[in-house]
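User: Show me sequence and structure for the first protein, then do the same for the second.

Assistant: Starting with the first protein.
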Amino acid sequence: MERLVVGSLLAALSIASAACGKKGPPLAPIVHIPAAVEKIDARRRGNDVSVTVTVPSKNIDGTMPVDVARIEVYGYTGTAAPQASRFLEVATLAGTITVPEQPEQKADAPPPAPPPPGTPVPGGTATVTERLTPEALVAAPPPAPPALKRSGPPPLVAATPAADIGPLRRFYYAVAFSPRGRPSPPSPIAELRLTLLPDPPLDVKATNLADSVRLEWEPSGGLIGFLLERALAPELSPLDDPVPEPATTPPAPAPPQGPTRYNVYREIIPLEGDPPPSPESAKPTAATEPAAPVPINPAPLDTLAFVDLLTGLDGRQRCYVVRAVRGDAAQAVEGLPSEPPICVVPLDDFPPEPPTRLSAATSEGEIRLTWEPNAEPDIAGYLVLRGEAGDATLTPVTDTVVTEARFTDRSVRPGVRYVYAVQAIDTRLPRPNVSLESERVEETAR
């Protein structure tokens, strides 16, 4: 019986091994398609629109790493967005973002070096900038309605579509492509209301202060624009019942809405001896396109002035422009920059404050001086000045700077009445700034 069972098992194993060696039909290659771009945002600054998208982090089947080679961004101008399935029929290419191939990470290998700033990576954001041409500010024809199959004769009068009404807008749509050119599902559609640009501010001025640069400007549109913006809206009579006229012309950009506010932008010019930019950032491309400039003010300004605090004076030139902005959040529209840029080289030409609360005390063979230390962050020390009673001019007691807010003068002669004052000195090079004299004190040596 045992021999019969063993023989049956050997026969079954023989059949299984023979079946494993038999060739079956070829399997289809796995084709990965990137998932859809989940977020797309458009912001306008002058005649440029920055479109920021999220790079897909996985494929539509959930596998990783994502197979994405590029993201194409399309734009369409009209009063309503086309259906996503027909967006590409009427849109134009606004820009392409190239996504570098992701290196394969092995389990025992060290983590790869971080990519250069601005490089699109899966799960991150990338930005493409479109320059608005005159054609982009005109409503484009919407997609033609699909042809209907009719069994009877065609109608005698063709229906004419109604004229477009409503505000003129620019719509953006993004599609990710795999290295084999397979497109992702459609992204959401971003909407940007097209309005006339607010006028740039006038007569921008910059003033150097001890620790900052103060900027001032005239309002957008000048005094007339300032007054018109604050004029009361006309009141309609109760008898007035305006009837909207039918639209006979294509919609045009509307005037900007809301109060005018301002953003300040700064560019720091490198010095001649500064190191050159890295090769990755020397020539920006669509793959490493820098993000849109960011204003140095945290929120749009309601005032006509701004103070740029300086963290240190390094001799670099700082150039400023101011842009008027109207609207809020995604519908905010910035105008063109003020011209020309205002450039200054902040210099420390401001002496410290004179020391205060100088006092003197005498003991055998010496006079001790103390004073309140200065609060300026760039104080290098103090000069102690001395003279005799009746002297109009005092001279330094030592050839070196006193670093503490106290000094003991041991070079006095008994019975002589001395006059003292202290000056603060800062760290500016090659010639430091020196404060005025403190209040003088007198003391007779013993």
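Switching to the second protein now.
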Amino acid sequence: MKDKIKMILREGVLDNKITRIAIFDFDGTMIDTDTPNSGKPLWKKEFGFEWPFTGWWGRPESLDSRIYFENKTNELTDVLTKKGLKPDEIEEIIQKGLSRNIFDNNPISSTLTAYGEQSERGDTMTILLTGRHTGVAELVKSILDSKSIHFDDYIYKTGNKETDEFKKIILNQLVSKYPDLQEMEIFEDRIDHLPVFQKWANEQKFKVIVHHVTDAKN
């Protein structure tokens, strides 16, 4: 009941004037997801064959390896058969792939603390702003939900612009939508994005703090 009352009060605040926004990136900021450099070798080590896709960030399998084995069993069987594996060996690989997600997707402790502080504030709207595309939106949200991390809004990348440019467009839209903003905090891990966000922050009439998250292991 206490949580329900808190939620109602929070929604009441958000329905009125938004004065603070806290924005969190997903990969490497909120969640320590695997990068191609860590994930592809792990995939090869666990399953004995190369990562089966060209890209990484747009693939749901980069967040949950089981998805590949749920959807690609026939294709994988053909590929491994051509490599000379026996049916029982192929079945063992498939069952291993279905049994667990090899990617941990753990929260980054410093960001989790910051998220807790921001989400407890009744005057603050929390937003997940990620370069992940809408095609993996449900999966991203399910990962966050499983860690009891819930945002007031979730914004996923659309279009073909570079991620930092896309995020800057969203930031400008938020400023236009909430003219009473007095403060914004941005949490981001990518060092190449920081100058873009800091330059944007310096151009605003309200206080903007850009936090560089450096705790990701992957």
